[in-house]
Amino acid sequence: MNTMNTAVNETGAAAGAGQERKAPGRPRNAQADEAILDAVLEMLSTGQSVAAISIEAVAAKAGVGKATIYRRWPNKEALIIDAVAAMKGTLPVPAGESVRDDLIMLVKANRSGKARRYGKATVCLLPEFLKDEQLHHMYQAVIEPRRDVMRGVLRRGIENGELRPDLDVELSLLMIQGPGMMQHMLNWNPGIPEEGFAEALIDAFLRGASA
Predict the structure, then answer these.
(1) Which of 14, 25, 60, 141 registers the highest number of CB atoms within 10 A of its CB?
(2) Where is pLDDT greater, at 108 or 6?
């Protein structure tokens, strides 16, 4: 996809790219930005593929002109990745006092706000990531900083003796993030209440991971 080359070169700044693009002398409109990003997430949440989404359709749904979008994003792919970043929210900061508390906070952060409202958007994007390696790399630039936060919590737990010294950090990430993704996005085991889910998940993990 030729239009993706420019966006891929900026993957390291994908999460914040939308905040940096503006025409000189033309102040950003936060309401317009939010309306545009929400329009993309709404379209993805209703099952539209990346190929089916157009700048024209996004502009119409957000109530803005196409020029407003192009002043902020160079192409559709960069817009979609920024919408996903907005859905994820700001990068969470662990308190650093308890591994259990920090892990629970991180799990809850991925299940609240826009992430909860637009959970189906990620489900709709998964096939796109599997088909398009470049789009997948752009998505990785959004989620890896969050995974690094959790890695830091796990490594701190190993160093201070809260967690087993032989704990596999990467495998632990899969063990923690996988169930939450399946429960939240695919609604597996719908009888499990949202209240207390993060605590139950982390406590189950810690029964095998604690020192």
Answers:
(1) 14
(2) 108
